[in-house]
Structure formats: structure tokens, C-alpha cells
Description:
By secondary structure, the protein is mainly beta. About 5% of the residues lie in helices and about 45% in strands. It is built from one helix and ten strands; from the N terminus they run E-E-E-E-E-E-E-E-E-H-E. The termini are far apart. The relative contact order is 0.31.
Amino acid sequence: VLLVESGGGVVQPGGSLRLSCAASGITFSNEAMTWVRQTPGKEPEWVSTITPGGEPNYYADSVKGRFTISRDNAKSTLYLQMNSLKPEDTALYFCARGYRSFALGNRDGWGQGTQVTVSS
């Protein structure tokens, strides 16, 4: 399994970013996929999960209404559209296979991460 995240960067508060995660080595269309984030010295935080068919989706309360998870099964790619970004969204973002518990418990299966920094 290979997961490669991209799309991170530095953005001002209120700005937007779109993260991507290219997957290979799995039957992507059969997998639920999850975004998690982590800041130094803290436990990983679950952000969002999308089911294999794309609906329903699940969001942490901290990002609900601002972030949108989506997927393109034909391209084996997962996305996270992040709007109205806040400084507390600053973190290294990872994509992972599976639903929330499985994703958080399988650190070895994450990609290398993409850094999101929200700062004025």
C-alpha cells in the first residue's frame, strides 16, 4: 500500500487549501478512507472519513462545515477541501485506509503527510 499526500502549504487565516492523497496497491474503490492530522507532541486527531461509495461522510466537530472530504475512485485519489482555515488547523495531515479506529490504530499505513500551516 502506498499513500502519497500533497497540497499542503502556508495560508492565511480564512484561506483555503485542497489536499490530495494518491493511493496505490489497494482496491481503492472498496476502501473507506480517512484523514488524520497531528501536531508535534500531541496524539493524532481524526479529521474525516469517507465511505467507499462516497456517502455518507463523517467529520470531527472541529472541522464540520469547513472541510469537505471527497474521492475519485477512477483516479484512486482522496481529497480534503479545507475552507475558512484557522491557526488551530495547523498540522501535518495524513491519509489512511479504513474507518476512524482502524486508521488511527495503523500508523504504519499512513503516507508521509503534507504540512498545513495557517498563519498571518
